[in-house]
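Project outcomes to date are best conveyed with an example. Our students and postdoctoral researchers have been running inverse folding experiments weekly, and each run begins with a structure described purely in C-alpha cells. The record below, which covers 105 residues, was selected by the lab manager from last quarter's runs and is presented without edits.
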C-alpha cells in the first residue's frame, strides 16, 4: 500500500506544496506542480532532490514567463486520444510539450 504525505517548502517569502508517495520498488513519487515535477525518484536521491526544489521552482517559473504565448488548434476526440497516446509513448508528461517538441524538430 502506498503512503502519501503532503509537505510545503518556503523560499522567497512564498510557500510551495509538494507530495511524496512511497512505492513498493524502493522509489518515491514526488509531485510539485510549481516545479513542474511529477516523477519517481530512487529513495536515496530524494533528499537531494527536495533540497533542489527551490532551484527547480525558479527554473519552472522562468520557463513559463518566457513561454507565455499559446497556440490553439482543433482536433476530433479520436485525434486527441491518438496524440495523447503518442505523447505518453514518447515519454512526455503532457501533450503540449510533445507537440512543441514535434513542431520544433
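After processing, the design step wrote out the following sequence:
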Amino acid at each position: 500500500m502506498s503512503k502519501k504525505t503532503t509537505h510545503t517548502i518556503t523560499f522567497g517569502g512564498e510557500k510551495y506544496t509538494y507530495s511524496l508517495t512511497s512505492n513498493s520498488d524502493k522509489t518515491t513519487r514526488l509531485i510539485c506542480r510549481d516545479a513542474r515535477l511529477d516523477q519517481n525518484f530512487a529513495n536515496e536521491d530524494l533528499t537531494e532532490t527536495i533540497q533542489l526544489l527551490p532551484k527547480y521552482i525558479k527554473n519552472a517559473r522562468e520557463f513559463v514567463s518566457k513561454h507565455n504565448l499559446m497556440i490553439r488548434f482543433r482536433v476530433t476526440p479520436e485525434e486527441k486520444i491518438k496524440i495523447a497516446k503518442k505523447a505518453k509513448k514518447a515519454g512526455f508528461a503532457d501533450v503540449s510539450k510533445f507537440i512543441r517538441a514535434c513542431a520544433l524538430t
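Residues 4-66 form one domain. The mean pLDDT is 92. The training component of this project remains on track.
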